[in-house]
Design goal:
heterodimer; A: alpha/beta; Nucleotidyltransferase, domain 5; 5-stranded mixed beta sheet; B: alpha/beta; 2 domains; 10 strands; 42% helix; globular
Chain lengths: 236, 341
């Protein structure tokens, strides 16, 4: 079974082709270049390196978000178009789970948090045991302090993984003391091969036409509208 | 001769559209999923909402376009997509669907300028006669383009501030009309009125083919404001008729003067505002008098659609123009000639 994996949910770009358990080709880039410029070229290049034609693909895996709205949409649009036109199944995996999968062979709690601006994080924590990632802090958009409270309450050592070490390390140290460490450099970059591994474990395939990113937040315009509606309801 | 089948995709603003066009003029399908109903609650197009809705619709719309055309990807010769200008987040959805589709089916991809698409909408009705003058009027554009042949574009005039459609939307808001403002004002302007309000016309310099609508817009706002201060009721029909007449007078004068100066064989109007009944009638009358053929596409091809992108892409395809998988959405894509011979 040949898989194509597409990860564009944050700044890093990763594309991989796997045949069964074997990674045939994979690219990972973290320099700040628009995904719109290089994502499809990378798909073409990685597939050529893997010696795989589009018609050879058996399934597509994509990181569904949350993350950069535009980044996630680029990955999802490529993935759903390929899955639809090639008539192959599509599997979407959360960006946080893909990130945590870098610590698949760790034993204990792994925490993931992506900066969501205004001191908020797309965040989660998993208890990893025998190669299984169980959510212990639900994947969602929350304030940094809420995330910190939830992590602190676990009262166990925590391994952090993700790109925002410089942003969070000091505040984590203040609160968690020696109960946390941050993963080594390369483990903080998501890999499309691990996205594919996550997708293989999920046996359900998405409805391609209706598949959309997991934004984790409504648009500002919709949020404002809702606020106005609620205010006018309250008046009545 | 072998016929050329192009699948075209357009997502530059708030319509998710796909179409299959043969040889640049035979439309096998023309599917448009509009976001107007959804966006109306915001009183305009919210870019992030537009992008999200495009992702929801994109494969459904392309699937439908192929289905209605009775074709499979193997029947196609190329994929065309709007590269810009437009809302970048919206453009990127069409562009990535087009790139992925082209890659999967081993087809060439052609990035098309949105306004070039509007011009070529005329080709869907009848072959274009060169040299030609195109008046582009939409929510984002007010331009006069001179074409000496296919793929050759010379901008001879444009707006210095607001686009005509933009002025329509703002005036509609002043009058409390629903979004989009153009059709609502056009309708009101055709209601019988006691006396249309006399708003100014921005003639600029005598020789200029440029436009300016911000002064007119301010005049309407000030008029409404003054009325309110005096406690007088605003007659929406009078304001709409006066505003529309001012816009139409300037657009018609400029277009007629340019058509004569450049000795064109045909004048065309394109873009969303060219669906405006008042403008169509004024241009038709003026060019009838001058004896210069004037055409405007049926209303369905004036507003955003993908068939027009397919029509333009066919000429680009014949000229050997191809894009790469690195194509980016360009919100301010310049209109470049592909044929400067």
């Amino acid at each position: 079974m040949i898989w194509l994996g597409i990860e564009t949910s944050n700044v890093p770009l990763s594309i991989a082709v796997m045949n069964g358990d074997e990674v045939l080709a994979e690219e990972v880039m973290t320099t700040k270049v628009n995904h719109s410029v290089r994502a499809m070229s990378a798909v073409e290049r990685v597939m050529a390196a893997a010696e795989v034609k589009p018609s050879d693909l058996d399934a597509i895996a994509v990181t569904e978000g949350p993350g950069s709205y535009t980044g996630v949409r680029i990955g999802v649009t490529i993935a759903k178009t390929l899955a639809w036109t090639l008539h192959v199944p599509l599997v979407g995996i959360s960006s946080m789970r893909v990130m945590a999968a870098n610590c698949w062979h760790h034993e204990g709690v792994v925490a993931v948090g992506f900066d969501a601006r205004r001191d908020a994080v797309y965040s989660a924590a998993y208890f990893v045991e025998n190669g299984v990632l169980n959510e212990v802090i639900e994947e969602q958009h929350r304030s940094f302090d809420e995330w910190l409270d939830a992590l602190d309450a676990l009262n166990v050592p925590i391994l952090f993984v993700g790109p925002d070490r410089a942003r969070y390390e000091e505040r984590l140290r203040e609160r968690l003391g020696d109960r946390f460490q941050w993963a080594r450099g390369p483990f903080n970059t998501p890999r499309a091969s691990l996205l594919i591994e996550c997708a293989k474990e999920r046996s359900i395939s998405e409805d391609v036409h209706t598949f959309v990113p997991e934004y984790a937040r409504m648009t500002e315009a919709e949020a404002n509208l809702k606020k106005e509606e609620n205010a006018s309801c309250a008046k009545r | 001769m072998k016929r050329t089948y192009i699948l075209a995709i357009e997502t530059s603003c708030d319509e998710t559209a796909a179409s299959v066009v043969v040889d640049g003029h035979d439309i096998l399908s023309n599917v448009v999923a509009s976001q107007i109903e959804n966006q109306r609650r915001f009183g305009g197009v919210v870019p992030e909402v537009a992008s999200r809705l495009h992702v929801e619709q994109i494969t459904v719309v392309i699937d439908e376009a192929l289905e209605q055309a009775g074709l499979t990807p193997a029947d196609l010769d190329a994929v065309a997509v709007t590269e810009g200008p437009g809302l970048v987040g919206a453009l990127l959805i069409g562009i990535h669907a087009a790139k992925a589709f082209a890659f999967a089916n081993e087809l060439p991809i052609i990035g098309v300028h949105h306004i070039v698409g509007h011009i070529y909408a005329n080709q869907l009705v009848q072959p274009m006669q060169f040299p030609l003058l195109a008046l582009i009027v939409s929510g984002g554009h007010t331009e006069l383009i001179y074409m000496k042949e296919h793929g050759s574009f010379e901008k001879i005039g444009g707006t210095r501030d607001d686009a005509a459609g933009e002025a329509y939307d703002k005036v509609a808001r002043v009058l409390g009309l629903p979004y989009p403002g153009g059709p609502a004002i056009d309708r009101l302007a055709h209601e019988p009125t006691a006396e249309p309000v006399d708003f100014p016309r921005a003639w600029l310099e005598k020789e200029s083919y440029d436009f300016s609508f911000s002064g007119l817009k301010s005049a309407v706002i000030n008029y409404a404001h003054n009325r309110k201060q005096k406690g007088e009721a605003l007659v929406p029909e009078d304001v709409a008729a006066g505003f529309q007449q001012s816009v139409i007078d300037v657009l018609t004068e400029r277009t007629v003067r340019a058509a004569e100066a450049y000795h064109v064989k045909q004048v065309i109007a394109a873009g969303g505002v060219s669906a405006n009944r008042g403008l169509r009638t004024s241009l038709e009358t003026a060019f009838n008098e001058k004896g210069i053929p004037f055409t405007v596409p049926p209303i369905a091809y004036c507003t955003d659609n993908a068939a027009m992108i397919g029509a333009a892409a066919y000429e680009m395809y014949r000229a050997g123009i191809r894009s790469t998988l690195a194509m980016n959405g360009n919100p301010s894509l310049p209109m470049r000639s592909w044929n400067d011979a």
